[in-house]
Specification:
By secondary structure, the chain is an alpha+beta fold. It has one domain. It is 33% helix and 21% strand. The protein is built from six helices and four strands; from the N terminus they run H-H-E-E-H-H-E-H-E-H. It has a four-stranded mixed β-sheet, sandwiched between helices. The chain is globular.
Amino acid sequence: MNAKRSSIFRRRVLERAGVICELWIDGSYLTEKIDPKDIDLSFAAWAHHLDTLDPALQTALLANLNGGSAYSPSLDTYFCPRFLREDPRYGADKSAYWGEKWGKGWDDRLKGYAVLKIGETDVGRRLFA
């Protein structure tokens, strides 16, 4: 990872805080561009895990990973809460929306995006089970 990329994004903060999540990464950050202008990502995490985090950490995550209240020229981030089917908040799950959003280019052609797993996630268990 070049210096520009590492200065744009630091996942170690999430790891040290014990946050279990996935970062769905898209855009020029993934290409061979020498100087990507920003990183486009969705922060996807199960609500039942987020509910167990310290309230100050929850607030910081929402402020910094949900578009936040302050503009950042280097981060284009979105919060993607995941809910179990039996959770009454299930209707607010946006994983299908962001999967489709990052899976298509501006020209509507299919493309890929990277999934960076932080901590233990169900994706790892499904892929390797």
